[in-house]
Amino acid sequence: MKQLSNKMLSMKPSSVRKLTKYADEAEIKGKKIYKLNIGQPDLRVPKEYYDRIREYNEPTIEYMPSNGIPELILAVQKYYNESGIDIEKDNIAITTGGTEAVLFTLLALTNPEDEYIIFEPYYSNYNTFFTITGATPVPVTTYAENGFHFSKKDLESKITPKTKAIWVTNPGNPTGSVLTDEEIEAICDMALKYDLFIVADEVYREMVFDGRKIKSFGYIDNIQDRLVIIDSVSKRFNACGARIGVVISKNKEFFSVISKLCQGRLAVSTIEQQGAVGLYSTGFRVINEIRSEFEKRRNIIYNNLIKIPGVICEKPEGAFYVVCKLPVEDTTEFLIWMLQNFDIDGETVMAAPADGFYATEGLGKDEIRIAYILEEDKLERAMYILAKGIEAYNNK
Ligand SMILES: *Cc1c(COP(=O)(O)O)cnc(C)c1O
């Protein structure tokens, strides 16, 4: 048989699902697993989502306009304007999830050999799209010891004549870190100095804790022509399965390419766009509820983690993740051992090994990502089991 695409064959399978096989085996044996590996919120989707879909009663499910239905574009614009970010309707394209916004952005920007500066550890799903488009991620490594923050020097040292853009996820998945004012300024300064695009994935925009102010690259005037914002209803409204995202830019040339890509894939789901109009109609009610729920959970996770001897992590500042160092050499082996050989009263814990979130080979081997997507009492229990598991693993 002829060989499949070399590029696609070289892609790595998802690191957050790496342990699924072992989890399935453990469950067949009757173990209960607290799954902290996948970043999918467990909270209720607002009822306005279903209300809007139930009201929809057209005789045909037609293709909708390729950049999105006018009601949804208007709803997104209103949400942005109320967030203090001034955008027009023709700066907005609706996509099939934030994921398609990522793909279209990379397709629109990338020429062979183009480099994207990205802060590692980063959302590993980007790698699929870097591979598809031939983009080269150039990581700026950040560390658990200082909460995954970086300096302007770290950033500038990675810029080359091939650099096309600085890619940033704020608040961060997997790290839970939120950019400081200095970091935002450094990114903007570098983009202006070296004539780079800024791609800001802000799907966790409002999920910032401890009274932090919401920061968006959309607030900064002098970079608007070089800025692309990627956004989604998935995390903001507990609606990952709705598959509605958005790409936003005031750069007209970029946007005209995005529109051609949108035309090429014809349209986004008619029904889901209706549902998304319902989601945005909730304004900031749901968003604020979600933030306070995750802040409570963050406190539980962090307060328990720092009590475990040998664990290194700073207090996560946003999103619903934390990456921490464990006192074990290889967290993949440890997590498999937890699934196969450890339980307390029939219960164990699963997290994501963090090495999959690094582009640099060998980093993150002693780290895990925890997604705190369970209720408070379950999180307390999961953290208790994790602490006991680490102790037992290191004494075996
Ligand atoms: C979840 C997520 C997305 C997009 O998810 P969609 O469900 O496709 O909208 C994008 N970026 C990051 C960092 C995410 O965590």
Helix amount, in percent?
A: 25-40%
Bound molecules: pyridoxal-5'-phosphate
Structural class: alpha/beta
Total count of helical runs of at least 4 residues = 13
Briefly say what this structure is:
The protein is of the alpha/beta class. Helix content is 38%, strand content 15%.
Kindly describe this structure.
With 396 residues, the chain is an alpha/beta fold. The chain has helices spanning 6-9, 20-28, 47-55, 70-82, 97-109, 126-133, 152-156, 181-194, 252-264, 270-280, 285-305, 331-341, 376-394; strands at 32-35, 92-96, 115-120, 136-141, 163-169, 197-201, 227-232, 244-249, 321-325, 347-350, 352-353, 367-371. It has two domains: 6-44 and 288-395, Aspartate Aminotransferase, domain 1, CATH 3.90.1150.10; 47-285, Type I PLP-dependent aspartate aminotransferase-like (Major domain) (Aspartate Aminotransferase, domain 2). The strands form three sheets. The protein has a seven-stranded mixed beta sheet, sandwiched between helices. α3 (47-55) crosses α10 (270-280) and α5 packs parallel to α6. The radius of gyration is 21 Å and the shape is globular. The chain binds pyridoxal-5'-phosphate (PLP). Pyridoxal-5'-phosphate binds at residues 39, 97-99, 123, 169, 173, 201, 203, 232, 234-235, 240, 245.
How are the SSEs ordered, and which strands pair?
Layout: H1 6-9, H2 20-28, E1 32-35, H3 47-55, H4 70-82, E2 92-96, H5 97-109, E3 115-120, H6 126-133, E4 136-141, H7 152-156, E5 163-169, H8 181-194, E6 197-201, E7 227-232, E8 244-249, H9 252-264, H10 270-280, H11 285-305, E9 321-325, H12 331-341, E10 347-350, E11 352-353, E12 367-371, H13 376-394
Parallel strand pairs: 1-10, 3-4, 3-5, 5-6, 6-7
Antiparallel strand pairs: 2-8, 7-8, 9-12, 11-12
The structure holds pyridoxal-5'-phosphate.
The site of pyridoxal-5'-phosphate (PLP) has 14 residues, from helix 5.
